[in-house]
Every structure is written in C-alpha cells, then in structure tokens.
Design a protein that fits this description.
Blueprint: E1 14-15, E2 21-23, E3 41-42, H1 55-80, H2 90-110, H3 114-127, H4 137-150
Antiparallel strand pairs: 1-2, 2-3
Helix pairs in contact: 1-2, 1-4, 2-3, 3-4
Length: about 160
Amino acid sequence: MSNAFQSSNTSFGGSGVGGSPQYNSAEDYRLGHANDGGPQVPVTRYDLNPFRAPWPLLVAAVVYFLAAAHWVYHVVDSRLVGMAYRRDSFDIIALGVGVVVLAIFVAYVLNGHAWARWALTAWSVLALFFLLHGTLWTIGIAAIIGTVLIWLPNNSGWLR
C-alpha cells in the first residue's frame, strides 16, 4: 500500500481514465480536503472552489474589489457633483472596461489560472498612474498591495 504523501505517476496531472488528469486528493490541497491516500479522482478546473484559495489571494481579491469600488464612487461622484454637463464620456468608458477586466482577472486567479496573475500584474502597473491623481492615489496603493499578495510564494501551489 502506498503512502499518501509519496508521489506517483498519476498525481498532479498524470493521465487517468479517458485522458483526464488524476489528482491525489491527499496531495492537492486545492480540492479542500485531505485524506489518507484514498482513491484518486479526476478533477477539472471547474471542481475547484475559489473560496478555498490561499488567504493571500482572497485578501488580494478584497483589496482589488475595494479599489474598484473607490474608483466607481469617484467617477459617479464627480459626475453627480459639478461635472454633470461634461460632453466626453471617457471616464465612464474607462471605468466600465477597467472594472470588468479587473473582476474577470480576479475571478480567474481565484479559480487557479496562473496567466491571470500576470494579467493582474499588468493591470496593477497601469493602475500605478492613479498615484499621480489627487484623489485616486488609493487605487495605486491598493494595486501595489494586491500585486504583492498575489505573488507570495505559497500561492504557486494554487495557480497552475
């Protein structure tokens, strides 16, 4: 009988029945449970629970969403107070695209996609320009905090 913590050919991506990857639930903490090395089960990305992500990723998601909420508040507030008659709508378009893209990237990071970490880093680099703005500098600070949190070493096991 093999030990649950010994690596085998089928753990972490070996071919199983029908060519689907097999994951040993005792070795892959992304499944949310550990056992004594029971049967290996086929797992897809859709079986992962994003709320079982490592805490730095969850905190980074909250930080990014708070930054997005601050951005929405600022744009809506500036539209309602004093600048309601502006003819250009660049800030509304930028807000819509930026918040939707941010939400998509955060969702993919929480679902375990490594490419989304790079995409969030690129979004954070663009968000650093908010440091130059008088009232939106907090979004730049949140982008720095979020980037540091998503690149912590213990997140590498979650992101593949």
